[in-house]
């Protein structure tokens, strides 16, 4: 069974940057698309091979998702952060990113890491 653990959250000023990590253990990571959610709102998704990435409109151009299958880890690099980016960020797994904005399409949710953007 796939288990996911997020890290990297914290307090940052508007305009700052953070990099979140989603570390996987168990089976099927390399076969899974991984999505990032803020609460239950889809933020970004990357397919199993890292060939295709998807972004919600509000973060496109500011956030970059990537994965290192050798390290069983997915990253979310967040730049030009805004106060509205604050929240609990979760990673979760699915068979594809086709409906990355639909949280019910994802399983193996991690506990989340909190991001606070504030001056």
The helix content, as a percent range, equals: under 10%
Percentage of β-strand residues: over 45%
Estimate the mean pLDDT confidence.
Answer: 96
* Low-confidence region ranges: none
Inertia-based shape: globular
Largest sheet: 6 strands, mixed
**Helix-and-strand structural type:** mainly beta
Helix segment count? 0
Major sheet: order of its strands? Answer: 2-10-9-4-5-6
Our measurement of the CA-to-CA distance between the termini, rounded to an integer number of angstroms, reads 40 Å
Order of helices and strands: EEEEEEEEEE
Rg measurement, Å: 13 Å
Number of strands: 10
Helix and strand layout, with pairings?
Blueprint: E1 3-7, E2 10-12, E3 18-25, E4 33-38, E5 41-46, E6 53-55, E7 63-68, E8 73-78, E9 87-94, E10 113-117
Parallel strand pairs: 2-10
Antiparallel strand pairs: 1-3, 3-8, 4-5, 4-9, 5-6, 7-8, 9-10
Kindly describe this structure.
Helix content is 0%, strand content 47%. The chain is globular and about 40 Å long. With 119 residues, the protein is an all-beta fold. 35% of the residues are buried. The model has no long low-confidence stretch (mean pLDDT 96).
